[in-house]
Amino acid sequence: MGQRLGWYCAERGAERVSPLPPGRALAFGAVGERRCLGVRRAGRWIVCPYGAVLEGEGVKDQCPRCAQLDRSRSVAADTMADDPRPYGVYLAYFGPGLVKVGITAAERGAARLVEQGAVAYAWLGRGPLMAARRAEALLGSALGVPDRFAKEAKRAARGALPPVPERVAEVGELHRVARGLAGWPETLEPVAFACVDHTELFGLARIPAVGEVAELGGLTAGAEIVGEVVAGVGADVYLRLRSGGGGGSGSGGARGASAEGGAGGVVAVLDARLLSGWVLGVARGRVTTAPVRWPVAGDDERGAEQEGLF
Prior knowledge:
Blueprint: E1 4-9, E2 14-19, E3 25-31, E4 39-41, E5 44-46, H1 64-71, E6 87-95, E7 98-105, H2 111-116, E8 120-127, H3 129-143, H4 151-158, H5 164-179, E9 189-190, E10 196-197, H6 199-202, E11 214-216, E12 224-233, E13 236-241, H7 251-260, E14 267-271, E15 279-282, E16 292-296, E17 299-306
Parallel strand pairs: 11-14
Antiparallel strand pairs: 1-2, 3-12, 3-15, 4-5, 6-7, 6-8, 8-9, 8-10, 11-16, 12-13, 13-14, 16-17
């Protein structure tokens, strides 16, 4: 269940995946234009009939018309109320005070939790889709438990996680309170508390502390990323970028020296969804030329972008 990078060739209708284990070297550049991936149906991709070009900075990998078609038959968009499959209701922990409720098809197991980058999780119940939806809504209205968190909040929490027992205790207390709520759907079978932690799966111990991780921005044609995989959490890939010798300009170079920690390279996080739709070719250079954004001291959610070679 480790992190992987998926590849698709529209001309051949072929798909493959590349594992991204720690230590794996990556060196690629964006080629041509970023295009809409189309729609996935019955386990295969249907090519975008419009050949739509996407902007490089966003994480959306579909054009508006393909996205609309995708949501016409989607559990997330509440357009699949007739889905007969059983669903699981879960609590997902991302950091202190960051516990959300969600649902996923039972046949997918913990795949959805891994995709979201949940540090730990526990199941609350299993049953029909609409019963799972009612339980999700109940936790939101009665306890104020959200169904999502911003990417920035998740990333910040990873750099300052408490010990595993404290994580388990926080999830366990919410599980206990949730199961005691009046109005729990009768058709939703309760699940005894059992917390699963993803420290080893994600390699959380290898992620630097808050303020010591840069962020890789969206690609443009010709931009290159050269580095080595440090860890992988959900869609986020942590890379140790290969240094360009000078390491950017001014404060960017100084910040890079701090983040290197003597290990020989700045650590930056890349949302792998930014790669979707690009043709990725072999990097021609030896350093990363994609934009790198550093967090501003005292503000983990906003940063100054430093252009340069890393």
